[in-house]
Amino acid sequence: MIADSFPKGSAAEQAAMNAEHKSAKAFCDNPPPPTGDKYTDLLNTINYHKQCADMKEQWDKNWPHPNSRGKTC
Predict the structure, then answer these.
(1) pTM of the model
(2) Could you tell me what percentage of the chain is helix, strand and coil, using 3-state DSSP and rounding each to the nearest 5?
């Protein structure tokens, strides 16, 4: 877990957590543009949503929430 490599509550921990969150948010806020081919668009959309979900899950694993009790979202 990335969070274990920083002192709890440190500025470095907060900066790393924010950077990873910002990167995931930037990706997830920008779906792929349409190509004009409905099958390619569908595949791109599916892959986009999978990648976005993976990034969110990884963030939850790297930066556990105090109230989560080990659960991931």
Answers:
(1) 0.70
(2) 65, 0, 35
